[in-house]
Structure formats: structure tokens, C-alpha cells
Amino acid sequence: MTEPALILVAELDVDLSPVTKHLWAERIAHRVVEQDDRQYLYLADAADAERVKDWLQQWQDGELQAPSPTERADTRQQLQTWLQTPVSFVFLLLFIAVFIWMQVSDSWQNWLTTGADLWPQQRLQLSTYLDIGLWALWRPTLLHFSFMHILFNSLWWFILARPIERHDGVLPLLALVLICGLAGNAVQWWYAGPSFGGVSGVTMGMLGWVGLRLRRVPYAVPTMLLPVMVGWMVISVALDTVIPGTSGTAHGAHIGGLISGFLLAALWPVKQSQSPPEV
């Protein structure tokens, strides 16, 4: 696991935009966090620290030059970037493979009837969920019912899973996938019964994880992502309450995944980075 590196601490009145623009142009993931009346510049990958220190020295000397706008990472570099987060990549391939399988086979359809004979009469009994089984509850996470469904969920997976694996490691990502998927699906089954699918319960859990830890870990995602997505969830729940079926969203999976993601983020320790020089 690559631990984020705290590379610079600066006063609030220091303009770091030349540095951040240079880093983005060089495709170096980073984040500036304002805390305790100071700015903290984190690098996503500590391996970039040495060359960034050179640029910081050039910036302080007034000699930092903007990189050429024509510089772009080639296909091989993009692949190497993905291979830095292999578990995220493997799960994405798994979602795509299952989607293709769904187009050529109907064997997956029995996944949609899990516990159908137990709902709703026995949905309040813990033994019901034990009878259904952990795998049967979790496996609808792999199902996507349309191209737009898998495209949308893959986008959120790309945005959230890779930073989590890069900064926190494989184990937290697997915990989020398994626990948030299971919790979200269990809540959805309790709320609306069987016949649902998608990895959005997991992505909501990852959203809760990132949102709760964003001030301490440089995930390089927008700070407004969590409130915007939670606001969207509240609006869609309200719409479906007034006009059932308006959004076609599995609200139980979203809520269950989000809450379990919050809990995991609160309980999982955050690794501390080394303190950098101040300017």
C-alpha cells in the first residue's frame, strides 16, 4: 500500500495555485487541506515526493515553469496507473464480465428471487437472513440491468474505489465491498423484497467512507461530493414516496450501504503521515 505523503505546510495567505496547477499538469494526484489556519499539501503517492520537492524549490525561487500543455500520458502509462490499484481494476472487470454473461444467459435470474417465499411475512426475523445466506444476499451486487446502469456505477467505482485502495490499502476496500454490499442488500430486501441489483450500495458506502475521512486523507475527490450525493438520495426518496417508482432506485441498498460505510470509516484507524517542512 502506498501511504499519502504530507509534502508541504503553508500559511493560509500563501498562493499554492501555481504548485497545484503544475502537479495536475504532471498528472500527480494530490490534495490541499485547510486546517488549523494552515494549508497542508498531500501527495497521493509518496514515490512522487522527490521530484515534487524539486518543483517546490523552484516555486519558492520563482523559477517554476509551467509544463507543456501537450504532455499527455500514453496508454501504457494509463494501464500502469490502473495496475497500481489492482483490486479496483479486477472488480471493475468482474462487473463487466457479469454484465456480458447476463446478455447471453438467463441463469442469473434466480438471483432475483432470493428469499421470495419469506418476504414480507418473515422479514423482521434474523433467522430469515441466516436462512437466505450471506452469498445469496450479497451476489445481487454484481448485477446490472442496462448499459447505463453499469456505466453510471462504473464511473462512481472509478472515482471512489481507486483512491481508497491507493491511500488505505486492499483490506479496507474489500471490507467496504463485502460489508456495504451485504448490509445494503439486506436493508433493500427488508425494505422492498427481492428483485434488485447493482453495486451502488457499495459505492454509497465508499462515499460515506471518503466523506468522513476526507479532511484527514488526501483522496483527491471534491469535498462537496458527499453532501451533493446525500442530497440527491433524499430528493429521490421523496419523489418515490410521492410517486412510487419515479426514480427506479434501490433506496434501501443506498441507505444501508451509506450507513455501513460511515461506521467503517469511523472505526477504521487513519494512518498518519510524516510532518513536512513549513513555508
Question: Your description of this structure?
Answer:
The chain has 279 residues and is mostly helical. It has two domains: 5-60, Alpha-Beta Plaits (2-Layer Sandwich), CATH 3.30.70; 77-267, Up-down Bundle (Rhomboid-like fold). Helices cover 56% and strands 7% of the residues. It has eleven helices and three strands; from the N terminus they run βαββαααααααααα. It has helices spanning 17-25, 49-60, 75-83, 86-104, 126-132, 134-138, 147-168, 170-192, 200-213, 225-242, 251-267; strands at residues 5-11, 30-35, 38-43. It has a three-stranded antiparallel beta sheet, with helices on one face. Strand 2 and strand 3 (38-43) form a beta hairpin. Helix 4 packs antiparallel against helix 7 and helix 7 (147-168) runs parallel beside helix 9 (200-213). The radius of gyration is 22 Å and the shape is elongated. It starts with a strand and ends in a 12-residue tail after the last helix.
> What is the 3D shape?
elongated
CATH architecture group name of the largest domain = Up-down Bundle
Please give the domain count. 2
The tally of strands reads: 3
- What class do helices, strands and sheet pairing give? mainly alpha
Low-confidence segments, given as residue ranges, are none
Rg over CA atoms, rounded to whole Å, is: 22 Å
Task: Produce a short descriptive summary.
This protein is mainly alpha-helical and 279 residues long. 56% of the residues lie in helices and 7% in strands.
